[in-house]
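FW: tagging you since you asked about this chain on Friday. Here's the raw sequence from the shared folder, copied in full. Didn't touch anything.
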Amino acid sequence: MTPRTPWSTACSRRRPSRAATFSWATGALVGVLSVSLPSYKGPLLPLTGGVDCSFVLSALTGGLTYLLTTSSRPATPRPTEPVPADQLVS
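HL: got it, structure written out here
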């Protein structure tokens, strides 16, 4: 059995996928366009009746974008660990 690695070590070895980066950017853009601040009102704000729903809209947009961009691709198989020589069946 292989020893477990700390979460930070395991995550630092992987790069985010393009689909995840694109989904995050799309959600962030929708969030900025629908925010209501004292100094800035986004152009999508009238669609929500003037209510600041930027957090919910950005989360839904990012999640749906990720699902749509990854649902058509097959899952990448994980690499398997080599079997020790004494466990090989010949």
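FW: The first helix runs from residue 7 to 12.
HL: agreed, and The radius of gyration is 21 Å.
FW: great, closing this out.
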